[in-house]
Amino acid sequence: MGSPRSYRERHERCILLERSRALVVAAWATLVSQIVIVGTGGAVRLTGSGLGCSEWPNCTPESFTPVPEQGIHGIIEFTNRVWGGIVVLIAVVMLVLAVRSRAGRAIVALAALVLGLTVAQALIGAVVVWMALRPDTVGVHFFLSVILVALSAVLVWRVVVGAPGPRVAPRWQSALVHAMTFALAVVVFVGVLTTGSGPHAGDGGAARNGLDPAVMQHVHAWPGYALLALVLAVVAVAAKRGPRAHLRWAVALLGVILVQILVGVVQSNLGLPILLVGIHMVLSVIATAIGAAVVLSLRPQPARALREPVAAAAA
Question: In which pathway does this enzyme or protein participate (predicted)?
Fold first, then answer.
């Protein structure tokens, strides 16, 4: 027969184990939801549904939900708004679990930052509607999603893998990886400008940024090829030195970049069909998430703060 104290300790360990598992699920849900909302937001824009709901937070001045007169555009825009609410809810759950699980200051801070920026993203979405889809506001809206995906990827890494360990790669290798991530940021930024010059404004009456779309497609391609060269260099270096996880993530990023280039070339030659443009948008944030993993995998370290309680509870 065990003592009351041993029963209590075992019970507390089981609770900690469940919270740790829930924290991992919440972290992944945070990342996936932030990627999915890029897809739903892209669907809004690419189908011309950006003003399907003319007001915010109501869909119309008289109704919170779409009315029949708005047709499919109202449904698409309202669906994106509903998913935005789900993303906020997931971020709230993530923060609560991080605090209750005593996951550490870094994870709590990351979860709080993701929640704060997600709420800010919703407010920016309102501004986008109020300003009739001005391309600069739409661009800020998308780029903030890219930042949120990057932060969510870091959050998943900290929860699942742990805090960065001591630097094991030489400084020049770290500099190469950071140059790659900078090139990725440039590609995404120029892609936002390119999209703002193209035909997919989100609504037939929305303004464009005034740049020549034919020229911008070439301007977008130049840093894209520079990024490809840098990713190839990162893979080549990782194959000879560094943690094996770093090589695996670098190869994964290379695969996504190659697919992204193929989609970009095909969509340009086919006149920017909405399906390919949507795939191009989602791939850009997936590349961002994997790029964050490439950086973090240079400094691997076991997540003692999470794994020790799990091991103790399972004993």
Answer: Porphyrin-containing compound metabolism
